């Protein structure tokens, strides 16, 4: 194994640009070409490839190009390459942890269970059903003022129930 960094430096200086141009032509990807050249040079260093004289320089260059070509072929055949594809669109935003939302829903549901039925029914229809006071009044056969009053007192009781559970101030 060649442990002399000067050997790798010389190999890189003499062959990396031509090797990179070759890999760019094969892949069409400038960034991937840099990775392939780096991996090729690493393998050359591990194998002890040198180009001390003209004969060795020719065989070292051939070896480097062959290794680079094989790396490109291996990548093209890889499962990762078949499953991944480039895109100009950003991925969806990060999805946060839903644990807090589940606990909040459980607390609100528990607090709603403590309300008298006449208040709970109006609060649930207004906030979960997104119904207006007039729609709730029509559905329940009550005056709009009664629905507004029950909604007011229901929300007030709900706030107190949540305070008892340590949710709000």
From TrEMBL:
Residues 11-80, 111-159 form the RNA polymerase sigma-70 region domain. GO terms for biological process: DNA-templated transcription initiation. Keywords: DNA-binding, Sigma factor, Transcription, Transcription regulation. One of its GO terms (molecular function) is DNA binding. It comes from the Bacteria. InterPro entries: RNA_pol_sigma-70-like, RNA_pol_sigma-70_dom, RNA_pol_sigma70_r2, RNA_pol_sigma70_r4, RNA_pol_sigma_r2, RNA_pol_sigma_r3/r4-like, WH-like_DNA-bd_sf. Belongs to the sigma-70 factor family. ECF subfamily. This is Sigma-70 family RNA polymerase sigma factor.
